[in-house]
Amino acid sequence: MNAHLRRAAVAAAATAMAVSLAACGSAKESGDSAKESKKADGPITIGLLLPENQTARYEKFDKPLIEKKVSELTGGKGKIVYANAKQDATTQNQQADTMVTNKVDALIVDAVDSKAITSSINKAKEAGIPVIAFDRLAEGPIDGYVSFDNEEVGRVQGQALLDELGTKAKDGDIVMMNGAITDPNAALFKKGAKSVLDGKVTIGKEYDTKEWKPENANANMEGAISALGKDKIVGVYSANDGMAGGIITALKSAGIDPLPPVTGQDAELAGVQRIVAGEQFMSVYKPYPTEASIAAEMAVKVAQGEKLDSIAKTTVDSATTKGVPSVLVPVVSLTKDNIKDTVIKDGIYTVDEICTAKYKAQCDAAGLS
After folding, report:
1. Does a cis peptide bond (omega within 30 degrees of 0) precede residue 325?
2. What is the pLDDT of residues 148-173, one digit of tens each?
3. For residue 223, what are the CA distances in angstroms to 172, 178, 180, 245?
């Protein structure tokens, strides 16, 4: 992980017929070159498909950051056509198919369901439209992929929880609140966390949370409290901040005080505020400007017929496609101690946004005022 991200984010012929054929070939090549030149110099349209709008990052960060970067890279000639699936895979497929029908020059896809989107990605491929998988590794013939090191996200979460528990790690049970099984990242977060936690804590209850919804995490947590007993829960692994909010509500409603350490991910504003208030122990800050910038750069390059060699220095394998050119962006463990050096320094939030009247005293104590 580089230091910047811690503070704080590609014919000769012998006969007349051969000459004639070569001339035909040259004409075709000339046409292709003209087409590529037009793409490189003229306007391009990139379809952006995001999965849901309950997690704040998509509308607040990803969409505007990608729009801005595409415009910068194309001198204002590139535009984004945007659609949000609101956590419905069928809707996302319809959105993607519409963009293919409308002949966008490239697609950026953050899949609701990595398998369900395959048919639309195949249609894009057949239409000659390249696809960049964004944040989640979609299946099908994708041309590039940018995300964070998702196993590392889980390891960071698990290690932070283990460190905070210290000698209390063996005094009771951990509840694991994983993400949705339709999201391939959720399995990677879980794998990374368990690589740290297995053998060092007792996982009393574990859930795969439908659609990542906070209300589902809340219901799951209520069930865990009922099953394990409120005095037996020493920590909660929550795969993201939205679910952490639902979990903490359930813990409070059960009268659990002090709250056990609860992890998170995404550095959502509400999550950062809970960290300041001492309700949520940590989150994982993923430098969205870096990820969005790379996604935009990849999409512009493939839209203009260029390779990704200059951007993607590694490859990953999906269930259907091997050797996808990829960029994996490092992540940072976000706690009360480094809020100023991460989300504030990188311009994700201002002190005023975090330190509303409700959190003024805690912000003062944390040196954020």
Report:
1. no
2. 999 999 999 999 999 999 999 999 99
3. 17, 15, 18, 16
